[in-house]
Amino acid sequence: MAFQPRVIKQNRGSAGEGIWIIKLKAGNYCGAYGERSVGDDEVLVLMEANDNHEEIHTVAEFVEFCIHGRTEKSGSWTSKGVGKYLEGGKDAGGQLIDQRFCPRIVEGELRYNMVGDALVGIIHKKPKEGGISAVGGTGSVYTYYGPDEPLFAGLTDSFQNHDLKLVMPALGLKDEPLPLWWTADFINSSPAGTPPEQEKWIVGEFNCSCVGISKCLAAYCKDDTPNASFGDISAEDLKEAMVYGNLMGTKALGFLVAAKTRRQVDLITDTLDFMGVKKVVPDAVTLKTGYICNIDVFTLTLLDNSERRLVVKTSNLGNALADTAEKLGMYEKEALFYSKFSALVSSAIKVPKWLGNFRDHRDISICLDDLSVLKGRFGLDLNNRTSLLMRVVADAAAMHSMFRFEKPETVINSFRVLDKVSDITHYTTLVRQKFPLFLERCTPHMLPQQTTIVTFIAKNFEKIVAHLSSFPMSFCHGDLKSPNIFYENDNTPYYLDWQYIHLGKGVSDIVFLCVESLKFDAQLVEMALTYYYRLMLDAKFEYSKDEFNKDVNCSLCCFPFFVAVWFNTEDPAKLIDTAFPLRFLQGLLKYYDHFLTEDFFNKL
User: Fold this and answer.
1) 289: confidence class by pLDDT, cuts 50, 70, 90
2) Domain 250-369: what homologous superfamily?
3) What is d(CA 181, CA 252) in angstroms, rounded to the nearest whole number?
């Protein structure tokens, strides 16, 4: 203070309140910094930035006002503020900031409006003639420029390409993102006449806790506009403000994704520590997002510097489909499959190699080898690949035969944790609750006899579930379809997506495979079912044709029907593929036309 004019500002101020530009009234500044200190009785000229009003006080009075507010010792103050800038201590924000005063503030300051790391606009804020502060409401003049304004090209380039990356580390926050909506206020500190390319600009302050959008000022309620509202913003200003708002949303999502990725990297490193992981690098491409789960790809670098591709499948919570998935226990079941059953099942069919599971709050993640390093494709069309279809049927039959249990006491210990169909109570609950809405929405798309059949299914659903829960039963995939299969070299299947595992009738997997993977062709469907039946007989199981046909029909009436009711009663706006529900139903109805009769239901 004894060396040069200063700016003292409270940490909790807003709109210039508690920001003081301070000069010695006598002007008797020392020649070098530290040469002397001001005395308590020296007189100060103080100008407050909120309204540019001026006050005269001694050093002792100013210190008293900063600490204790208005007291006998602090004298008489005309400020709108109450002082007490240190009240509550540092944890409560009670701090004062001492800054050099830059005389060229009278020419104005440049406010850089930032959304994350993106400059969206520059405002030249010039104080009212005779004033120092350019706070709104003080008569200051604002001039708006775009982010590419040539007048400030040097400052913009220096700030964005050099200084910006240093800001958060300088604050001890190197692992945190830049604020979502913030400003940097620059004051020219160079002597007048300095060439633009040599000018030095100083940041007077950063704002990130109470930043407004200038184009929305018309909606700001003040003493003279107490009824201002959103509707007072002009269409032109609103359009520009929406650009800011949309960019904020994009940046916010980027912050969240980046934070989640960093968290995933840490959890993967811990989970796969047994592999000697040195580094985990996320892939730029996400395999799947926005469905019931997210699938991300990472590259691991191991201790021997070899690399290994990793797929991480994570529950995608917080949407309507995920709510149903949680009620069905899908995330828990798939994690259970890979940790407990995948090694056993891989002796019958091929599954991705499991490396580990981890949890992050409610999210469940599964770490698998990335099959895409192999030559092959997902979800081949099986309609014109009969031999490949039969290969899938044979694989399913092999798994069902290996893990088939004739009665309860023959179920091996590790498989006793699995649900039977009747234990998955949400099947029945959802059908009972949503079938009326399903009929309302779907009757226009069904023939009268089809409406009769689906009504029979709904009325007999509990009997159908009970039959599918009776022994003998096999270990079932539950969601067998070509999109859940990777075909190495287009001919060797690897089976994925084990979210619906349960004990049930093995043929239910074949039924769903046909419904989801084949355009109905009576000859091809009957061929697949007959082949499966023959394979079960070859395995020396007692299985009558009547019993098999009943299993087929009940399987058609259970999970495929549940899927049809579920998706056709969801809000279409929340679905990624809005055409799927009706497309699935129309395909399923062709199977019902072929296989189901009223007599079948009468015999249940």
Assistant:
1) low
2) Phosphorylase Kinase; domain 1 (3.30.200.20)
3) 10
